Queue: 4 jobs
Job 1
Amino acid sequence: MDALTFRTATAADIPALIDLVTSAYRGDASRVGWTTEADILDGQRIDAAGIQGDLDRPRSVILLAEQDGQLQACCHVADENGHGYFGMFSVSPAVQGGGIGKQLMQRAEQHAAEQWQLPTMQMTVIDCRDELIAFYERRGYVRTGIKKPFPYGDERFGIPKRDDLQFEILEKALGAAA
């Protein structure tokens, strides 16, 4: 296998991004990996308009990790109110657990620190996703205790199967070692 390569997404990547993000989080295909949200959410995880909006924003990029010419992982990195924002993190279920996600996360943190000189990276995680939160904690993120409501009724974020969903903000200090 060839080494992992990284690049920023363009509008031409939108269909592949929708397929990747959906495969990592929704439906039976997502159950192959450990990041599935299939037990708590149905419906879509991302749409073309949302991705295009991320591509069009200033100080916002979607990073792609490819291997042998195939898209393996992606994430959205943006400057939001003086903090890096890390979202849309998706790794193909077929390669989860192989280190690709960790490498992409490091690349995203480097981008926020080096390109935009941001002091911290933040993300929102559904607070009942204990295994996922533990993954981020092992990578230096801490729970802030700051909660945000889940956007019930907005199907762009999925169709909830539970009525107790909310987001928690996780944060990591960035620096030379990021």
Job 2
Amino acid sequence: MLAGLWLWAARRTDGAAAGGSVFGYSRGQGAMMFGFGFVCVIESVMMSVLLRDWPTVHHVVLVLDVYTVVFVVGLHAASVVRPHVLDPGGGTLRIRRAVHVDVRIPLERIASVHRELRTTHEQVDGELDLAVGSQTSVTVRLAEPVTHLTFFGRRREVRVVRCHADDPGGLVRAVDQAREGYAVP
């Protein structure tokens, strides 16, 4: 996440291929992350006032509070600088979620891609839901499963990937066009 902060400050993105297209997804969480960061700052100030007579405890809590604020900002920065990436030249679609998820989907394995706004997501085997603000806006159905590594390194085979995109129509059109171009020799 610290690398995400650096890239965000430098206004760069991670993993954007030359000739590829990037599709952000962080706009849907910006207000929530700002609100959470604001609450953390207010909590830090209030704890400083409450613990001013106990300097050792005050310093420990202050370090934890600063770490929490950096963590919240870093998490949002990681979402901003690691967008979804469509690389027609490489024949892949990368669906990402901050630093936690990076699924590479070969274009030839995509059976269909369409806009689908969903606000409820049940845990189903073989499906990967990457909601932002409790919603997904793009559904990618696969002809063959792809392997997704979970946060703790467990392998999961997924046949359906749902994600959020700030411009779901643009992502769907770009993937369809890349698939058509990819199928032509």
Job 3
Amino acid sequence: MTTGLLTVIDMQRVFADPDSPWAAPRFAEAAAGVRRLLPAFGDRVTFTRFVAPGTPEGAWRAYYEQWPFALQPPDAELWQLTDEFASLAQHVLDSGTFGKWTPELARRATSEGRLVLAGVSTDCCVLSTALAAADAGVEVLVVADACAGADDDSHAKALQVLELYRPLIRVTTVAELLEAT
């Protein structure tokens, strides 16, 4: 079994739906990678959901002025995990921020010693989570082929930036990670 805590970031309908303004074009490919990873982590998996706040504050006000469709309550359909993951998600962490490095995730990851990240979007929530966890001293692995960006170029650029943080953050693939077990 692979070591660490697998955190599957924001595999939600809003990012899967091709008609959504926030669609990740390679969501299906990322989902396939996540499906391959899940058995190797057993119950050491946390799914996250990005959700809008009831009332945006600070710079988030301007953000939601740009994306008013997203100001929906946490139980809205767009915020739900996609059907393939909803039934598998035993532990779900909601956050109104891009970075999912919350005290709850920190407790879970610290007890496991390593944080393995997959999901969407590489260039936003995955990147934000990886940097915060690395700053906290947690070893971070980002599984490139189990992630998807806003577009291919943004995905590739985010992975390049993450590579700059070695050895705190390492970019890997599903095959490399599973072979290491």
Job 4
Amino acid sequence: MGMNGSTMLEPLRQGLPPIDPAGAAGSASCALPARYEAVRGARQFTRATLNKWELDDRFDDVAVVVSELVTNALRHALPADTPREPHDPPVRLHLMRWTSRLVCAVRDPSHAGPTARKTEEDGAAESGRGLFLVESFSDTWGWHPLAGSLHGKVVWALFQLRRD
């Protein structure tokens, strides 16, 4: 199948980030408990991982995005009405790096796509602001529903690493 011009215009949410996880130079993931303190844990995990990959200079931008994605995910994971396997934590953070890019992806149990809403009700404005930050600090972002037996979705953000 040849790539035609229109494929580029399809919304990113149709698929995975424009990358092949198998080719990653490094990847790390951590499960996060469905509690708001998990945001701090996610940031610590991100700091340690970027440190290991010698990408400390990108921590500030990546941490903003990780915090927002995790906060949004927890908003969906906190209602305890979804039956849960103990070995299947509701929220998981993945960090993956290639030579020239870094991707952070957060999985949550909700199928609903993230939306930048304008209303004030139920903290929606907060979540809209969060997506604005994700858009501002990352180079591109998107989301996709999980396939198979996994319920929920993955929201991801990609950072270009400008290496000389």
